[in-house]
Amino acid sequence: MAWMQELAWLSPIMLVVFVVSLIGSYLAFRQKSYRMLLVAGLLHLVISPFFAYSFGPFMFAIGIVEFYMGAINKKKTKEVVRL
User: Fold this and answer.
1) What does the alpha-carbon distance between residue 59 and residue 62 come to, in Å, rounded to a whole number?
2) What is the spatial distance between Cα 83 and Cα 73, in angstroms, rounded to a whole number?
3) Which of 16, 40, 57, 67 has the most CB atoms in a 10 Å sphere around its CB?
4) Are 55 and 14 in contact (CB under 8 A)?
5) DSSP state of 48
6) What pLDDT, on a 0 to 100 scale, did the predictor assign at position 83?
7) Residues 39 and 20: beta-carbon distance below 8 Å
8) Whole-angstrom Cα distance, residue 74 to residue 33?
9) pLDDT band for position 43 (cuts 50, 70, 90)
10) What's this model's pTM, rounded to 2 decimal places?
11) Which residues of 20-29 are buried (b: 16+ CB within 10 A; e: fewer)?
């Protein structure tokens, strides 16, 4: 954990990246751009361990939900033809 003390300036930058990507993921969900939601979820999963003692679990949970929503909705559904 000594690297966190040496790179203390990195924490606010990652927090800003989280907030911006959270807003971006909300907009991507509203526009039904699920691939972007998948990328935002992956980004939140990568950033969350750096905030493990504060709100990292919350960040991890949001990343899991975004990743799941992006993966599920990425595939296009085919219309069923009824005879």
Assistant:
1) 5
2) 27
3) 40
4) no
5) G
6) 67
7) no
8) 8
9) very high
10) 0.77
11) ebbebbeebb
